[in-house]
């Protein structure tokens, strides 16, 4: 250590008659000659100027290299890099929640009772029929017109429709056919029953007259003109039979458009009318049946979501209808108590197994026999025409997470046993400044999924709902409302539907994503899945069917599916992020660079601090030093005067 460090402050006393400036110069020189900073002492200990100049150059170069290395080390620290440590835990992982749904959201015969759904399915049928015999030039330049110019009844049962007919000579009534007539003059007008899809009775179009009726009921029949009533309701009156039927739309529907299997022939005046009607229904210029089906699904889901949840639940599948058999960990399940209803906008009635967060279930061993096994009956004979596949939809998620089977789901077909082997991966992420994740103690207050754990998918849907409320003035019925005062969007309003489509598409742009930051949670459980399948049931198994079918195995292959969900191994992974380059690593690397280029260490820094404190102490004493010097000189003068007077005596 430098002699300057151990030097006492008393050595700088004014008795030595050195000024503070001189003391500081001596202190600096002593420090430079004795310091452990290599190069500095070499500059001050040599008497040769060229050697001193050489050491000055070498010292400056080393200082520059050291600072350059410091900048690289600091940049590495500022990157906040992290590493992922993988830990394998050999114990039974908690079993996740399993949500199962039918791929068909609603029963066809029940959904047809909802007027909006029946109209959507009829329009879908018309679009599919056209796509089989389409020429794209026929749809160019078609415009829309209102389908509801006149009054309408929501639960109307009967309405007049045009139909091609087969009439028996001598009889007034005709038999309706789904083919297209040559002209409307050759067609009949029938009483169409919206509930069962029948068209009867039918009479020649020449025997009907368009008129204005004074009063109509919601069944569809009206009082004849010039009778009791004060309304002006459009209707069609049967002249020979003496009754009138309410006309719900400005254009009388054609039965060959929504029930027929062929479009009108080329050259027929009805073909152009068919094209215009198709465009009005929203399927203009569409010939791809996949795109048509997708659009019809979206329309149906949106209209179904506008119904009350209990009304939607009544149109779907019951728990005992969908789930026929169940076992977990080799033991029989209680289907009534262990499955919780979850109404999904895309799949209707879904049921969640192991939904209670307070109840912990775990498999005693790995393998299909110790997981969840379900036999599910989907009844494909009552599927909607928009449902493209038969089977079930499965979502594997945490107990506190909201299931999203449409986004994070797996499909399992009928006629096979579908095995889903799962593995748990527990992820622990670092928050700021090393990462960007949401900590558990900082929940999202704007989430529309109250009571559920935060998830990025729920965050995105919440952003969408808030945007729809702000831009369209109503809430999308497919998702929960953030507050009760918001009204649901009317799925029958064309302007509202256009707003939902337009604003939903804008949400995916980068500009709008800045206002919707959905980050990953800091702690998350992820389930990875492997899938395998085998034909089911086998020919050797003895099965029984509810309909007492002779060939029960064939019946189950068409309408039922077997599901197995299990852990593949009795262990799970814990992925834990940790900082790759900490503050301690930064100091160690900087110390190494300083030692390499300057020969310095932490002791050199302490030595410099002692020198700085000592120099500061000397600089702060000049006033006291002058006072002591004056007193000392005064005492010396007094002593000298006394000595002179003594000698004289």
From TrEMBL:
PANTHER family: AMILORIDE-SENSITIVE SODIUM CHANNEL-RELATED, PICKPOCKET 17, ISOFORM A. NCBIfam families: deg-1. The gene is del-1. The chain crosses the membrane at residues 49-70, 594-613. It comes from the Eukaryota. Its main location: membrane. InterPro entries: Deg-1 (IPR004726), ENaC (IPR001873), ENaC_CS (IPR020903). One of its GO terms (cellular component) is membrane. It comes from Caenorhabditis elegans. Residues 1-21 are annotated as: Disordered. This is Amiloride-sensitive sodium channel subunit alpha. It is found in: Membrane.
């Amino acid at each position: 250590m430098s002699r300057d460090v151990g030097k006492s402050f008393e050595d700088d006393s004014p008795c030595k008659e050195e000024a503070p400036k001189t003391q500081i110069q001596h202190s600096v020189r002593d420090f430079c000659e004795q310091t452990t900073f290599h190069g500095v002492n070499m500059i001050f200990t040599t008497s040769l100027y060229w050697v001193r100049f050489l050491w000055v150059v070498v010292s400056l170069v080393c200082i520059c290299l050291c600072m350059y290395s410091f900048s690289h080390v600091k940049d590495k620290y500022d990157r906040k890099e992290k590493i992922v440590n993988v830990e394998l835990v050999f114990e039974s992982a908690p079993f996740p929640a399993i949500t199962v749904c039918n791929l068909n959201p609603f029963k066809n015969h029940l959904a047809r009772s909802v007027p909006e759904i029946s109209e959507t399915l009829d329009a879908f049928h018309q679009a599919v029929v056209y796509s089989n015999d389409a020429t794209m030039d026929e749809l160019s330049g078609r415009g829309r017109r209102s389908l509801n110019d006149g009054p309408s009844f929501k639960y109307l049962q009967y309405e007049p429709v045009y139909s091609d007919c087969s009439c028996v000579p001598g009889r007034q009534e005709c038999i309706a056919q789904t083919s297209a007539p040559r002209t409307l003059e050759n067609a009949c007008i029938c009483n169409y029953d919206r509930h069962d899809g029948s068209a009867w009775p039918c009479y020649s179009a020449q025997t009907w007259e368009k008129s204005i009726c004074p009063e109509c009921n919601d069944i569809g029949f009206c009082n004849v003109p010039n009778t009791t009533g004060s309304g002006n309701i459009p209707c069609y009156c049967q002249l020979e039979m003496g009754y009138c039927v309410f006309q719900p739309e400005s254009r009388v529907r054609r039965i060959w458009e929504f029930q027929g299997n062929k479009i009108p022939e080329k050259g027929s005046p009805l073909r152009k009318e068919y094209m215009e009607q198709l465009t009005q229904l929203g399927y203009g210029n569409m010939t791809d049946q996949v795109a048509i089906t997708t659009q019809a699904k979206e329309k149906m889901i949106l209209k179904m979501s506008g119904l009350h949840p209990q009304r939607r639940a009544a149109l779907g599948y019951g728990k005992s209808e969908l789930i026929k058999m169940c076992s977990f960990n080799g033991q029989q399940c209680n289907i009534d108590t262990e499955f919780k209803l979850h109404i999904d906008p895309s799949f209707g009635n879904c049921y969640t197994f192991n939904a209670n967060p307070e109840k912990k279930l775990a498999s005693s061993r790995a393998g299909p026999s110790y997981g969840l096994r379900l036999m599910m009956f989907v009844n494909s004979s009552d599927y909607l025409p928009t449902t493209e596949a038969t089977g079930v939809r499965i979502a594997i998620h945490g107990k506190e997470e909201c299931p999203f089977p449409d986004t994070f789901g797996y499909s399992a077909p009928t006629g096979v046993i579908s095995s889903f082997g799962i593995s748990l991966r527990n992820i622990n992420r670092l928050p700021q400044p090393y990462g960007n994740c949401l900590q558990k103690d900082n929940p999202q207050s704007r989430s529309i999924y109250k009571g559920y754990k935060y998830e990025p998918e729920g965050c995105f849907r919440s952003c969408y709902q808030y945007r729809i409320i702000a831009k369209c003035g109503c809430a999308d019925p497919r998702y929960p409302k953030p507050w009760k005062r918001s009204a649901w969007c009317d799925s029958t309003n064309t302007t509202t539907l256009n707003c939902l489509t337009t604003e939903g598409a804008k949400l995916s742009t980068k500009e709008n994503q800045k206002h919707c930051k959905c980050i990953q949670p800091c702690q998350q459980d992820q389930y990875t899945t492997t899938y395998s399948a085998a034909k089911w049931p086998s020919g050797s198994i003895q099965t029984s069917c509810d309909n007492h079918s002779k060939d029960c195995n064939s019946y189950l292959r068409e309408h039922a599916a077997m599901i197995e969900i299990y852990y593949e191994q009795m262990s799970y992974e814990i992925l834990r992020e940790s900082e790759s380059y900490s503050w301690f690593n930064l100091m160690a690397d900087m110390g190494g660079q300083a030692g390499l280029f300057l020969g310095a260490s932490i002791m050199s820094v302490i030595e410099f601090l002692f020198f700085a404190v000592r120099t500061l102490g000397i600089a702060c004493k000049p006033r006291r030093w002058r006072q002591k010097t004056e007193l000392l000189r005064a005492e010396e003068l007094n002593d000298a005067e006394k000595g002179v007077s003594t000698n004289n005596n």
